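Morning - pyridoxal-5'-phosphate inputs below, output right after.
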Amino acid sequence: MITISGFDRIGEENAFAVLARATQLASQGHDIINLGIGQPDFKTPDHIVEAAVKALRDGHHGYTPATGIAPLREAVSADLLKRHGVETNPDEVVIVPGGKVTMFMAILMFGEPGVDILYPDPGFPIYRSMIEFTGARPVPVPIREENNFAFSAEETLSLMTDKTRLLILNSPANPTGGITPRSEIEKLVNGLEAYPEAAILSDEIYSQMTYDGMEHVSLLTFPSIRDRLILLDGWSKTYAMTGWRLGFSLWPDQLIDKARKLAVNAWSCVNAPAQYAALAALSGPQDAVLEMVEEFDRRRKVVVDGLNAIDGISCKTPLGAFYAYPNIKNTGWKAKKLASALLEDAGVAVIGGPDFGVLGEGYIRLSYANSTANINTALDRVRTFLGTNKEKQTSL
Ligand code: PLP
């Protein structure tokens, strides 16, 4: 019998299990609309694909530096300057195989028994999974509907102690679509001065997906925390590149060499042609990004209006990302039971809120990265399903 420790604590991302089940049902001939997985339904823009093909033809098929090719790290710095107005050192950028890898690295660096790591709940499930894996204590920071799914500086700070080694923030947020306003971020950053031992991981993977004129405030713009800020961003969502497995992170001076060592130990370097594609994405035209965000914005209105027209459902208007996170408490259904029934009986894949944390009960997540026609059909199916399945309801 082989014994290994820690794996009873590691979790999963249920969106992948839902994707597998939805794909299986579709392959058996069922008509499934997938509003489960969080990935743009657009193609990677042509000039980006061509850059990868050209890179292979030009012979870029070997190892690269562990932290990424220099022109790409320079392009990331230029992008951060353009978007956030902040000068960064390309030598502190690490190109990683997916945004997720940055959180893996950061949590691995700081997590150990006896320390606390704070993370948003509901939030991306891998935060908690990895925190538990390291043996650190996961401390959920509640993200509340009544606060429009922004995090509260006061509540976050009230959970911090001298044991807090890492604070994870995510805005615009998955699964809620919430954006934390500048005033709240400023309040938090000021409060963080009392906890100089705590590093901050700011997950800004949806930084370019904001609506209704809402600004994205990067944690990078606050000099007082620069020496302990890890920035997570990448190409997956912005450029419709989820399957390329590409992301970038910026590390403070005191952590960059540790990050480089983790890269060398785990993946040596990111796939070389993909790095050239990433370079084309950052340095080429941005029209496709703008068009994609405009299309998400149109669908956002369709999904929110449609959800609010269904008996028992109420949905706050999300201000960022491409998720709607409706409150389903008045339908009487438990969230995961409803998500499963919608997939099996109504052909609509969504994710139950509890897959994002304990505060997720009473909510489901719908990704509106699907066509308006499919969204409308899915909403009709949800309405019909809830209208005809009252007998299966369980009270919350
Ligand atoms: N962070 C958040 C909040 C996400 O929602 C996701 C993907 O869904 C990621 C990070 C990971 O992105 P990637 O596909 O680049 O690993």
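Note: The first strand starts at residue 33 and ends at 34.

O.
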